[in-house]
Amino acid sequence: MARPGGWPSVRGRLLIIALLPMLVLTPILLGITMQRWLNRTDQILAARVTSDLTVGRQYLDHLTANTARDVAAIARSAAYRDASAAEMPAFLEEARRHAGLDFLMLTSARLPGGIFAVPEGGLAVFTPSDLEQLSPGLAARAPVPLITTEGSRPTDATSEDRGLVVLATDWVILPEGVNGLLVGGILLNRNEGFIDRISALVYPASDPALSGEIDAELDRGVITLFLGDTRISTTLRPTGSERAIGTRASAAVSAQVLGIGRPWHDTAFVVNGWYISAYEALTDVQGNRVGMLYAGIPKAPYTAARQVTLLMIGAAFLLVGGLFVPLALSWARGIFRPLAAMRDTIALVEAGDMGARTGPVPGAAEIALVSTHLDELLALLSSREQELRNLNADLNARVEARTQDLTRANQALQITSRQLILAEKLATIGEVTAGVAHEINNPLAVISGNLEVIRMVLADRDSDIAPELRLIDEQIRRINGLVSQLLQFARPEEFTDGPLSTDPAAAIQGLKPLIRHLLARSGVVLVEEIHPTRPIRMNPHELQQVLINLVSNAVQAMPQGGQITLRLEDGAESGREGVVITLSDDGPGMDPATLARAFDPFFTTRGRMGGTGLGLPICLNLVTRQGGSLTADSPQNGGTSFRIFLPMADDSPD
User: Fold this and answer.
1) Is residue 461 part of a domain?
2) What whole-number distance in Å separates Cα of residue 506 and Cα of residue 511?
3) Interatomic CA distance for residues 146 and 246, integer angstroms
4) Beta-ladder partners of 414
5) Of the candidates 143, 266, 350, 501, which lies 20 to 30 Å from 160 by C-alpha distance?
6) Domains in the chain: how many in total?
7) Is residue 347 part of a domain?
8) What does the DSSP 8-state code read for residue 460?
């Protein structure tokens, strides 16, 4: 038998094995190492930018706290206390210049924008009119023309006229002798001193004054203050000279930082390039997100450095590979021939010949040992394969049996759930019907009593009104019957008498005289299939009442005559022994919608005058009260079948 060949051959495979570490594994390891190094570098850069942003935020908080301290110091100074009303404007102007504030004013009312007091300082956003109230000319310094920026949200606005202010207040006594506020602050729009101070702390290479003292390759970072998504103060100079005032943040950054308040720590497109960026939302004194603080470093220098590193590693790999590959090929030739036999054996096994074996092979002892082990492994593999097949067949049989058990359990659970829901509905409606029956009985007794009085008063005219009085009597009896049905539905235990142990066969025999007139009048034939049964846990009168109701329904469903089959036999349900009574007719049956509501109280298909709709609910209540079950089924080809299960007399209901 010819042994199958193919590529790669043993020689090819050995060459692959020899060269795999150098040509495949080494690049993979280098790639993994480089990727981990790059990821670690990215983490370090991201951590650095986050740290830079933290320094910037701390400086902004420091500026806010200093502003609050300066305003508080002015408010509590002896100079303020001693200044007269005429001297107050000059004093405030001198104090403003000395504290480095953009405005300092007194007011007895709330600040613009509904702000009342900011004793610890904070940020606030004011409209142009609000800025003008704070200090004349302040509104003219705030406007920032908007510049179309790639990636930003579309807007119809042409400028940002609002002002972002570091605001602080303190309570004072005004010159008029009333309580008021001393209000001071700094406008951050176009505030180059504020933003450059942060940049000098974080990125000294960005300071032109230090460019000759620091390595030119040091990263030059960017610090930016946003009002909304608009840059109102920044160290970013995309053209080399002009600051990028008026440019806007990308839509993705705005949505995350301003929209949901989550910081951004990732690369982001900033005006004209990609930066390793960190954004953080700024909130005003009222807790609203009004802007962002940004720190970032350009990504381009790091990308270039990575490319140079990758080129150097690639060149070194090619150099080492050029020396190692010829040496590996020389070593591989010494074991090609002995392994060819094992190659052929493996090929036969792959083709399905599990009995193929290599046998003794010439060559080095290590190769011969490998061949022997290969044959042993093939034999073991064949044995284990047969064991697995046997186990698989056994497992399939067990899974199928377990699936059937689960299916039966699921069906039982569904039946129990439907019974619980129906029982709860019956209990609720029973409470209502009991109340209705009670309320009807009282006026009905009054009507009946007054009717007797009328008969006595009009005794001499009995012949004239006798038909009307009989009609009233009939309606009273009809109402009495309806009330009795309602009470029996609501409190069936009050209508129960006799023992709770019944011979179902005897009860059915006693049923015949009660239904003989129904069967004779409708031309319906009753067929009985009664087998020896055990005593059941139910009052005989209740059982007869249930069967009479079901027979009556079957007779009314077959106005042209038909056959009713009553079957009685021993059975079991949910692990309980008992008796199964099946009553079937060959009438038209019920559609699925009617069958689903058959046991709903007051549901009837006989029209307004045909019935109360309480027969089947009362039957269900009587049966379930004894721990039994009553179900209905109506096949598509016609006919209806009711199945009653009642437990044995010595078995208690679950």
Assistant:
1) no
2) 9
3) 4
4) none
5) 266
6) 2
7) no
8) G
